[in-house]
Each structure stands twice: as structure tokens, then as C-alpha cells.
Design brief:
This protein is an alpha/beta fold. Helix content is 35%, strand content 21%. The protein has eight helices and 14 strands. The protein has a five-stranded parallel beta sheet, sandwiched between helices. Strand 13 and strand 14 form a beta hairpin.
Length: 254
């Protein structure tokens, strides 16, 4: 298999493709891993599923590709030489808050996963993983970040406002910076204001998980979302212990 090469930029013709794992119309996935076997495996699987692919062996090479290519999603290993996945993600998010990133990790530490999500990752998969699971995660991320255009909707909860057409969230008029996954999570809660949203619903609709799992990704994202939208006495995201979450309007006067 070929390695990524930075050189003269040429425009390739691409035809629309639909995959059984999700919408993949003219979609390019950047695979970043220092193990050539993993890069080849993922690149082959993604192309077979209908995606265009680019590959890089470390974060610095990936950033160069991102600057000159149109990348729709990045699949990035955490442990790499030269520039690891955390450094790549942190650098990327300084100038790009929208390109989704799926982290690959051989580490079991929840602190490492939390660090990646805090830096702006949209999801993570622990090694070893099945190709089927990874393709499902990729499809789910793309569905929620590049979904079919819907009607213009605006939601509000106290001083918090969401404009889905402009993909913008404000608190008392100030912009709240959210990743694509955080935006979708908040949208699910705000669109069901006052109603329970179960963990199972969130895992299915946001992370594309239709199977039993012990993942803590929902609780982790809820935690980081609260840090961004909760202020003083305004704490609208409540936990229904053992079941899920609910967005609650603040009492009058708050």
C-alpha cells in the first residue's frame, strides 16, 4: 500500500457513493497511524465501504494533508512518534472546530479518553477493535455532522439559544464553542425540553450504538457540555439516575 505523499496538488474526480454504514457521498477519511499494517487495513476497509481515503504515519504529516486536501473525517491513533494524536487534535482544534475526529487508543485509562474528548474528539474506539465497529462509528459521526439538511429550527432554554440552521449556540448572546458531537447532544436535549432522554437513545442516535455497551462516552460528553453551558444558577442539564438526562427550564427570575 502507498503512503501519504505531500506534493503537487491535483484535483481527483470523485463519484458519489452510498455505503450501508451511512451516508458517504464524496467523503474523504484521513487515517493517521504509525503502524503500516493498521493504516492499510483501515484504508482498505474504508474504501471498500465507499469512502475515499488519505493516510499519514504521524500527526505532523496528517496536518500537512489536512491543509492541502479536503478532509471530511480523521481517524487518528493516540500513540505515534513525531506528533501524537493528542498533539494533532489540539493543534487542529486551534483553527478547525468542525472536522470530526475519531481517536484510536490502546490505552484503557479513562483519563486518556477524557483528555481526547476535552481536546475536541468526537468519538473514540479502543484497540483492538473490529472493522465492523469502526465503520459503524465512522458512519454515525458522518450522519450527525453531515446529515441531510432539515428545516430551520431554533431552540431556547432560559438564556441558552440554539440555531440549528447557523449551527450556533449562544448564552446571553455570547457564542458557546461546541464540537459537532456536543452540538448534536445539546440539540437532542433541547429539542426534548422537559422530557427524559435515555442513555440508550443517546448512544443509538448520536454514537450509532445499537448494542449493549459499558462505554462512559455519554457521561463524559454530558460532563463537558455542562462545563460549557452551565453558569452560576443556570444548570438546566439534570441527571435522572440510572436512566438518562433531561433539559429543564430554569425557574422564573434566573
Amino acid at each position: 500500500m502507498c503512503c501519504a505523499h505531500i506534493g503537487p496538488i491535483t484535483q481527483r474526480s470523485r463519484r458519489p457513493v452510498r455505503s450501508s454504514y451511512g451516508e458517504t457521498l464524496m467523503t474523504t477519511v484521513l487515517v493517521v497511524d504509525d503502524e503500516s499494517g493498521v493504516r492499510d487495513l483501515l484504508s482498505d476497509a474504508l474504501r471498500f465501504a465507499g469512502y475515499d481515503t488519505e493516510v499519514a504515519s504521524h500527526g505532523r504529516e496528517a496536518l500537512e494533508l489536512w491543509r492541502v486536501k479536503r478532509i471530511d473525517l480523521c481517524v487518528v491513533d493516540i500513540n505515534m512518534p513525531t506528533m501524537d494524536g493528542f498533539e494533532f487534535l489540539e493543534t487542529l482544534r486551534k483553527s478547525d472546530l468542525t472536522t470530526p475526529v475519531l481517536l484510536l487508543s490502546a490505552r484503557d485509562s479513562s483519563d486518556d479518553i477524557a483528555r481526547g474528548l476535552r481536546f475536541g474528539a468526537d468519538d473514540y474506539v479502543r484497540k483492538p477493535f473490529s472493522v465492523e465497529e469502526l465503520l459503524l462509528r465512522v458512519g454515525a459521526i458522518l450522519r450527525r455532522t453531515r446529515g441531510i439538511e432539515s428545516e430551520v429550527l431554533t431552540y431556547s432554554c432560559g438564556p441558552l439559544t440554539m440555531d440549528t440552521d447557523r449551527h450556533e449556540v449562544t448564552y446571553q448572546g455570547d457564542i458557546v464553542e461546541l464540537s459537532a458531537t456536543e452540538f448534536r447532544l445539546l440539540e437532542m436535549l433541547m429539542s426534548r425540553l422537559g422530557r427524559l432522554v435515555t442513555r440508550e437513545q443517546l448512544l443509538r442516535d448520536i454514537w450509532g450504538m445499537d448494542f449493549e455497551t459499558e462505554t462512559t462516552v455519554v457521561d463524559t460528553y454530558i460532563s463537558y457540555l455542562r462545563r460549557k453551558v452551565h453558569h452560576d444558577n443556570f444548570t438546566p442539564i439534570t441527571t435522572v439516575r440510572g436512566v438518562g438526562f433531561k433539559m429543564v427550564e430554569p425557574a422564573r427570575g434566573l
